[in-house]
Design a protein that fits this description.
It contains 7 helices and 4 strands. By secondary structure, it is α+β, with helices and mostly antiparallel strands. It has one domain (about 45-155): Ribosomal protein S10 (Alpha-Beta Plaits, 2-Layer Sandwich), CATH 3.30.70.600. Strands 2-3-1-4 form a 4-stranded antiparallel beta sheet, covered by helices on one side.
């Protein structure tokens, strides 16, 4: 974290393995252009996350027992973004436009609960404005929305 605060870096995900120093050097040499482009994109940025906890009105267990069609509809529900979350995402993106470089959204499980994670690549120069803008609209979104970060830009480093 201390290195990230002082310079731009490319976070590496767990499971990235290279056998020895020579393999690291070869990999960096072979992919130099790609990493230079990525460093330029991530330059002087932080990742900020906004997590929406999704409340399920669908009971998947009952759907599994009812029929194949009900099961498939329940599975479709698990992989779809609820309308309220999509509306909140649009509000956040509109309100915070020009304060971030890039945005990503993913559905996931967090503490056993479905959630919708919005990740933003935020220049350090606009980080405080980004947070202030978020807090200005957060109260109107309810308790199911939470801000986290800043973090190294993991979701933007592939």
């Amino acid at each position: 974290m201390r290195i990230h605060q002082q310079t731009t870096l490319i976070p590496v995900r767990y499971g990235s393995l290279l056998a020895d120093e020579q393999e690291v050097i070869k990999h960096l040499t072979d992919h130099s252009a790609r990493y230079q482009t990525l460093l330029a994109k991530l330059d002087d940025c932080e990742e900020v996350g906004i997590r929406m906890t999704l409340v399920d009105s669908n009971n998947e267990a009952n759907a599994q027992q009812a029929s194949g069609q009900a099961y498939l509809l329940a599975r479709k529900h698990v992989y779809s973004v609820p309308e309220l979350a999509a509306q909140q995402e649009a509000l956040i993106n509109h309100t915070l436009a020009n304060l971030y470089r890039e945005h990503r959204a993913t559905l996931s499980l967090f503490n056993g609960q479905r959630s919708y994670l919005l990740s933003y690549l935020v220049p350090r120069a606009t980080l405080m404005q980004f947070k202030e803008g978020y807090f200005d609209i957060a109260a109107g979104m309810g308790a199911n929305v939470a801000l986290s970060g800043p973090w190294p830009p993991y979701n933007f480093s592939e």
